Task: structure prediction
Amino acid sequence: MFTHRESGSLEYPKGNDMALTLTPLPSLPIISPGDDLAALILDTLEQNHLSLADGDILVIAQKIISKAEGRLVNLTTVQPSDRAKEYAEITGKDPRLLELILSESKSVLRTRENLIIVEHRLGFISANAGIDHSNVSGPWGNPEDWVLLLPENPDFSAENLRKAIEKACGCRIGVVIIDSHGRAWRLGTIGTTIGLSGMPGLVDLRGQPDLFDYRLRMTQVAAADELAAAASLIMGQAKEGTPVVHVQGFPYPLREGSLQELIRPEEMDLFR
Result:
């Protein structure tokens, strides 16, 4: 099981002599549009006496990516459509917010009072298209009017960040961008991958032997999501202020990857 060490790291034993170690990076400054995230993360690693090595991974909260990319929107600048107003009647949500949700979505799957579930334009299912009010403020007006959209292209964001950090450190790493998502059949949110670069999203274990030499037939591991959930535990959800986690000992080889590995094709979805 995971153990939370005094250093603030999570450790997960793998086999006899390997461990997966996750270390949060405190003291990262508040991010503003246009900030150089790669430089800030490298500075924070140095401040915490950590160095990157081949095979390491950085797990990064979506919020700081969105802030750096200027994905802040003030609701007073949004003109709701008739469709947004219709969903406002159903959900009781601000029609301006619903206009943004619709603009970020492929389709609306479910609605009820105070809830709208959509298929995001990136392919995953989420509430409110991932648009967030918490820990968000803008340069003018009422802070309550500011919301934060997900990155335009999280895979691209992860790739750019990875390449900049690899160039500076001279090593090969992976980058995962995560967000908090709910699940259809369980309560509570969980850290979930929305973008990645330089590491696998899905690991196919079909054909591998188990302890009794039985060949696995169905097992595919959502390795990026498993790591996202682990990192989310120590990032926290409210005031913890640790949006970056340094990972060592990831148990699978690094390779190029993308979010699409993790998205179930609609024709294979039994629940829509």
The helical segments are 37-47, 62-68, 82-91, 95-103, 154-169, 223-235.
